[in-house]
Amino acid sequence: MSRLGRHDFEKYGDIFVLTPDSVCISNPGDIRALLANPTTAKSKYYNILRFTGIDNTVSTQDIELANARHRQIGPFFKPTYLAKMEGIIMKHGIESIKAKWDRAIAESAQGVAEVNYCNDFLFAAFDIIATLVYGQQIDELKTAQWIDTTLTYIGIRSMVQLVFPFIRPLDSRYNQLSNYIYNSINQRREHLASGQPKPADLLQAFIDAEDPESKVQMSHDQIHGECMLMMMAGSDTTSHTISWTVHLLMLYPHHYQRAVDEVYGKFPHTITYSDCRAHLPFIEACIFESLRLAPVTGGLLPRIAPKGGIYIQNHFIPEGTTIFVNLAVANHHPAYWQNPHEFNPLRFIENSDLKHNVLTFSHGRRTCPGKNLAMWEMTTILANIIKDYHLQLPPDITHLGPHILNKYGYPRQMDSQQYIVVKPVDAQRDCRILISKR
Ligand code: HEM
């Protein structure tokens, strides 16, 4: 699995100079301290995430604006508001996957169907976020193409500015997504003006969002920018994490069996998020372990050393230096994790405090505000598919399996690539699975 900076960490350790004006850090303690520092700003690199030309929550380097935006949107990602969106999350998430999988099984010859879980989780995540952001359901394929294109567009833009003229064709889908969101905001305002009840979704959340300190609300353009951001930040990340979790469970059959034992025969109904939180610690631990071992946000987060500079492990980092935070290495750091390359969800059952050292959602003031929503989607989807279906690797997948080991002596994971998020190189080949009803 190619994760950025691992070789450099193995060669140079917790902190090293990357370029004349940047360093890279990988120690979870150092990372937490840096990200928790209220004077640490993001670097200019984040300008590429200004999808609409103006700053949004993820792109802004202005610490005050970021704080205000977190105060504005934070309450809508708390469990109380998310509970109001539960119907949408369940309908477009697990219920839609189950309908698709049940159909595939019904159409199969012997009650065993082959599905591609990476595609199915992606569509479900796209569909959930699109419905929450547009305020209405829309063709999932269209949304998926729009988001995928936009992420590709940003990825290319960030890597090779010179090929800009050649990526113009991607503009059109990007513009369609942008226009659709613009119109959705207008439609919602008309809906509200006509005196109809307020729906509970992210579109409404951003219209209502108010900074409790300044009482400032977002402008139309800012709401539009936030909606675009949520589509990008909240789809691939969530769906690929579920895919990595299923993949890892197939490679570690004893953990898969333990997950089955936790849910099988215990829930006559669709497992809800409150069921997960109250009764399914192992399923949750599997997700944390997947976030740790195969972090979808496995890249380097660039930050700027604050005014006056800072010390990291006795090294003085002058003000203005770019500090690259290496999340993937932090999640495998040998001083923090026993057998870091093993998929072992039990580590979180034995010591649930370890969850705080999983940095895949980042940490501190700029931590991911969508974490609760992501956990809601991921746990309900994972728990219910494990409850309702037998999952098995197809026999023709011979290059992956519990007995095909990597250099650390653990089952080899499918190849991955980093393109904003870390995703499988060949999902069409590697994310196939046989399903049958339990
Ligand atoms: C498994 C799922 C997810 C993971 C692993 C994840 C991870 C992250 C990480 C690492 C960051 C920090 C990025 C940086 O500083 O460069 C971040 C920021 C952010 N995420 Fe997530 N995320 C997930 C799901 C979501 C969802 C579902 C949403 C919303 C619908 C969301 C919205 C955001 C936003 C708005 C930010 C910007 C916060 C800021 O910069 O202040 N994320 N996420």
UniProtKB/TrEMBL annotation:
GO MF, one term, reads:
heme binding
GO biological process terms held by the UniProt record: secondary metabolite biosynthetic process
Per UniProt, the keywords (alphabetical) are: Heme, Iron, Metal-binding, Monooxygenase, Oxidoreductase
Q: List, alphabetically, the InterPro entries matched.
A: Cyt_P450 (IPR001128), Cyt_P450_CS (IPR017972), Cyt_P450_E_grp-I (IPR002401), Cyt_P450_sf (IPR036396), Cytochrome_P450_monoxygenase (IPR050121)
The UniProt similarity line reads:
Belongs to the cytochrome P450 family.
User: Looking at the record's lineage, which domain of life comes first?
Assistant: Eukaryota
* Name the UniProt record assigns to this protein: Cytochrome P450
Q: Which cofactor does it need?
A: heme
Q: Where are the bilayer-spanning segments?
A: none
Source organism per entry reads Coemansia brasiliensis
Classification via PROSITE patterns = CYTOCHROME_P450
